[in-house]
Amino acid sequence: MALTLPDLSFPTNSLEPYISAKTFEFHHGKHHKAYVDNGNKLIAGTEFENQDPESIVKKVVGDTSKAAIFNNVAQAWNHSFFWKCMKPKGGGAPTGPVAQKIQADFGSFEKFAEELKNAGVTQFGSGWAWLVQKGAKLEIMKTANADTPIAHGINPLLTVDVWEHAYYLDYQNRRPDFIQAFIENIINWDFVNSNLK
Ligand code: MN
Fold it and tell me: Which CATH class is domain 97-195?
């Protein structure tokens, strides 16, 4: 099968108090699992069955007859990417090559943080906020629902899930506080650096 549910690389309680074990139990164990299971059912027996998620979303994006495939496969990929953007005792100022690029393209880490937070807060309804690389330049991007930069040939470096299921158990309606905590305490900058091309 093309889609798999990856194990988390950290214990589910290791990001507390910023993200609870309960949130991971639902977000990884139920929501992400459902995208994987539904996606696999939808691609079974089709030309997409043995293709990787990135190829699938590039092929079906914009095709309304394949919206269910796009939504489930893109969400399966987005979540696998999102878990890798996190680590216990992460966040705060970046390290490595991405630190210089953030300085150059946003002016400062604080300005980058403000733009990422603003993208997540202003995404109406469900979606994702991203740090992406376009050519040599880093930019902030937001996508609605399942949409993902990889469907549009854009290289993602970092994402934060702003669907309510990502934060409601821990923050209720306080999406800005969730994004702030993600930036200050959770981002895995080693992973972000590894995504630079
Ligand atoms: Mn999610």
Answer: alpha beta
Q: Please tell me the distance between residue 107's alpha carbon and the centre of ligand 1 in angstroms.
A: 30
Domain positions in the chain: 21-84, 97-195
The dihedral formed by the CA atoms of 65, 128, 118 and 109, expressed in degrees to the nearest 10:
-140
Residues with beta carbon < 5 A to ion ligand 1? 161, 163, 166
21-84, CATH topology level: Helix Hairpins (1.10.287)
Average pLDDT, the chain: 97
Specify the pLDDT at position 1: 60
User: What amino acid occupies position 21?
Assistant: A
User: How many whole angstroms from 161 Cα to the centroid of ligand 1?
Assistant: 6
pLDDT, tens digit (0-9, with 9 covering 90-100), for 98-119 = 999 999 999 999 999 999 999 9
Residue 148's SS3 state is coil
